[in-house]
Amino acid sequence: MRMISHLGVVQMDAVNVLARAHYVPLFSRLGAFSIDGLDREAYEGRALFEYWGHQASWLPVAMHPLFRWRMERASRLEGIYGGLARFVRGKRRYVDAVLAEVAARGPLRAGELSSSRPRSGSWWSWSDAKTALEWLFWAGRVTTARRRSFERVYDLTERVIPKEILAMPTPSAPDARRALVRLSSRALGIATEDDLADYFRLRLGEVRPHVRELVEEGALEVVTIEGASKPAYLARGAVVPRRAEACAILSPFDPLVWHRPRAERLFGFHYRIGIYTPAHLREHGYYVLPFLLGDALAARVDLKATRDEGVLDVFAAHLEAGAKEKPVAAALAGELRAVASWLELDRVRVARKGSLAPALARHF
């Protein structure tokens, strides 16, 4: 929970090729932990809530007031997907009926609503009930009470978020966004305005005045990055270590790499996740994870937890330019064993694909 508080946001995603997206960044930083224990703390302990932070996200529950401006904006059908806004405009009475049914019968999954039925050609192929619930979620009227097989179970926000959190004062939209910029700077360390805006998916025009204010107050320091064309900012109190000793496999949705321009600017690492790319255009594989060693992204691996066989499959392993094969292979092998142990997989299986694969396979 301290780590999630430091990060401020953990992105969620349904892809479960290795493990859910919101678990891997915590493993990368802390090592093995109990997934079931974290879920209990999040949903039964109400330590976290789900909302649109950086995409669909887990957020510390104390941050709920900082997103009420976004909920209010969604209530006005602003700042949301166009198809969702059109649906609500055309079916407002239906949406109100869905909210009334959740109030009377909740918590409910979308498929448990009395009016839930598929409709052809719907937005994202959702049922009307699911579409209505997603807008109510965005507008803050309902939230996630828990998950069943990763499917949201919705309930009224006032029955899920602790009363003491709901009673906290609601900051103005500018004050909330300013607080989010500060949290972003703390989590990122060095960041450009683009990086700070992307972290909580703020508009760049909304971020710039707050950056200037924070610089004037001394909360942010203007710094230059060698070879970079844009100024960057360092959070006051940030600790600059003498050396970096990181060793971690990173989720594609990890805050270190989720803003691809930043990963390329800082690490020279051009990264695109293969799951959204047609098979014949994938360069490195389907579910490719960067490997951080020291202060460099030294390799990338295409991984899958083949659970029915108890195997962590490495379908491909590629060494990055300038990285040394032997130390990278040794360190990566250790991390793969740790991942397999955490996911209760019995062994690691390495295919001979990619420039690093032969050296990595020798460790297994």
How many DSSP E strands?
Answer: 13
Order of strands, widest sheet: 9-10-11-12-13
Summed up, the helix count is: 15
Main beta-sheet annotation:
5 strands, mixed
What does the overall shape look like?
globular
Q: How are helices and strands ordered from N to C?
A: HEHHEEHHHHEEHHHEHHEEEHEEEHEH
Structural class: alpha+beta
Radius of gyration from the alpha-carbon trace, in angstroms? 22 Å
- Low-confidence runs: none
**Helix coverage percent:** 25-40%
Average pLDDT reading: 94
- Bin the strand percentage: 15-25%
Straight-line distance between termini:
34 Å
Describe the structure.
This protein is of the alpha+beta class and 364 residues long. It has 15 helices and 13 strands. The chain has helices at residues 2-7, 24-30, 35-44, 68-75, 82-90, 92-105, 128-138, 157-160, 163-166, 173-188, 193-199, 204-217, 260-267, 325-342, 357-361; strands at 10-11, 48-53, 55-60, 142-148, 151-156, 190-191, 220-223, 232-235, 247-249, 288-293, 296-306, 311-319, 347-350. A hairpin with a 2-residue loop joins β10 and β11. The radius of gyration is 22 Å and the shape is globular.
Summarize the structure.
Helices cover 39% and strands 19% of the residues. It has 15 helices and 13 strands.
